[in-house]
Amino acid sequence: MPIRRILHSNLFLLLASILVTLLVLEAVLNWIGPTSLQVRRNENSFRSFVWNPENTRFDSELGYMTRPNLDVPFENWEYKTRVRTNSWGFRDDEESLHDPKILLLGDSYCFGWGVEDDKTVDKFVERETGEKVLNMGTPGFGTIQQFLLLQRYCGTENATGCTVVFLYYINDRIENFIPPGGGVPTLRKEDRRLLFTPASEEAYNAAMSVHETSFVTELSRMSAVADLVFGTLFNPRRGIVFASDFEWEDWKVKEKQFPGVPVGPFEVLENLLRVLKLYALERDLQIRMVMLPFYTHFTDKDSSLDYSTEKKVFRMLDIPYRDLLDDFTREDFYPHDRHLTPKGQEKLGVAIAKFLEDEKNP
To answer: Which residues of 111-127 are buried (b: 16+ CB within 10 A; e: fewer)?
Structure first.
């Protein structure tokens, strides 16, 4: 047999072996690979609804706002959805802006991240209560931003006499305590005054940059093997800083730019709710707090995270609340994305409606 033919034959076998090995490795990583690698691949390749300039715009008071009148696709590994917003940028119809009886404020859980428009929590609250509900949820918003958004909406639309439900998520305690000068507003104290510091457009643009979709992020999305190689070596999203990663010591250099002194995370919540109660009296608003479930509660048996401290604050301020942490199971969540599935959103809406009904008829 000619040497050239032998070489070609050996090369073909080598390439075939490499291909088969890659296919087997792909299958192993996808189906029985370590969960940590799957979670990391999702973080390397996921598409963020918020950190996309086509979906949000900078707002110095709130940090950012969802753009009005959107009609855009939003998809990740576990879902393909479409997001539509009204003239305020809320994921709800235009009619819901006018004289709603119930306002829902929260983050991505309230927004309905990962479900279609007709499967968001507000639709199920409306179904169960028969009242008009406005979904004001904005992904990534903490309690500070939600309060400021409530003030803006009520002041502009002259909303009074509503029941306002804050959907409190476990990471709100971190987002409420992010140092000043970042991409969201913060709360500081000067004597007996509370000061809201503005958000930084520079920080907002930096977050946009590291969440940008690139050739590497798309490779990670398409292939677990590619993510193992390129996602490790070249992924620009290694620069993402989560709220829990912020260190106050790193921000000492900026401290002089902001008046007042920092307030601890639970002190932020207490002070904010005191102001909220005064505002509610002015507007004849009924304030309710709902503590949302979170995925790690059902997957980490040693987790000590719960809402016990928040509940002490709510009881001290006499604010009605409902802890839904143990009303859910891990099957109500997308395992990688960790947001509620359509079934989970329905369960949340039914639970909120029951809470409101219980408060009406104690």
So the answer is: bbbbbbbebbbbbbbbe
Q: What is the pLDDT of residues 127-163, one digit of tens each?
A: 999 999 999 999 999 999 999 999 999 999 999 999 9
* C-alpha dihedral sign at 237, 68, 148, 258: positive
CATH superfamily ID and name for 42-360? SGNH hydrolase (3.40.50.1110)
Residue 267 carries which side chain, given as an amino acid letter? E
Q: How far apart are the C-alpha atoms of 211 and 209, rounded to whole Å?
A: 6
Q: Are 167 and 104 in contact (CB under 8 A)?
A: yes
How many CB atoms within 10 Å of residue 202? Answer: 12
Q: What is the pLDDT of residues 21-69, one digit of tens each?
A: 656 655 665 665 556 666 677 777 778 999 999 999 999 999 999 999 9
- Nearest 10 degrees: CA dihedral of 254, 209, 237, 187? 40
- Cβ neighbors of 320 (< 8 A, separation 6 or more) are 287, 288, 289, 314, 359
Q: Domain ranges for the chain, please list them.
A: 3-33, 42-360
Residue 62 makes CB contacts below 8 A (sequence gap 6+) with 141, 145, 148, 149, 152, 184, 185, 199
Strand-by-strand arrangement of the 102-105 sheet: 133-135, 102-105, 163-168, 286-291, 321-323
How far is the first Cα of the chain from the last one, in angstroms, to the nearest whole number? 92
pLDDT per position as a tens digit, 288-335: 999 999 998 888 765 778 999 999 999 999 999 999 999 999 999 998
By the 10 Å C-beta count (0-12 exposed, 13-18 middle, 19+ buried), 105 is classed as: buried
